[in-house]
Here is the input.
Amino acid sequence: MGYDAWRNYSDDDDALLVHGTAVSVDGCGLLILGPSGAGKSSLAIEMLALGAQLVSDDRVWLRASPTGLRLQAPQAVAGRIEARGLGLLSCTHKPEALLKFCLDLSQTCDRRLPFVQEVTRLGHNVSVILGGPLSPRAAALLLLLQNGFAGYD
Here is the structure.
């Protein structure tokens, strides 16, 4: 059985509990999915150092709202992030953010300008960026959350 980035670790029909990391920039959330060791927390730590805010690490709740999917931290992991080789670090965090983009480190794309895939979760469309083997850098992801994609004329 292969890796399922969207596996729900909850029995709640109205929410998803996924294995991932979520950060926020000005209230716009990025959900980073991928198997253990893929670099989710490391990428998030780089983004935090550049000004992003942690929402959750290791597990993330996705809950539907009228304006989209909300990212939230389970109480057990709120305010903590794992630094591989160092341990769990305390970190200020936002209680929630509106999901803007998802980066899936388990999916590969070798295009210089990859296409964004759309999936539907809990009745809302999610823009999924394929993350491997060349995952976007923290600074580029920060700019994406702040400004969105540029139009191609």
Remarks:
- Residues 6 and 12 are 14 Å apart (CA to CA).
- The two ends are 42 Å apart (CA to CA).
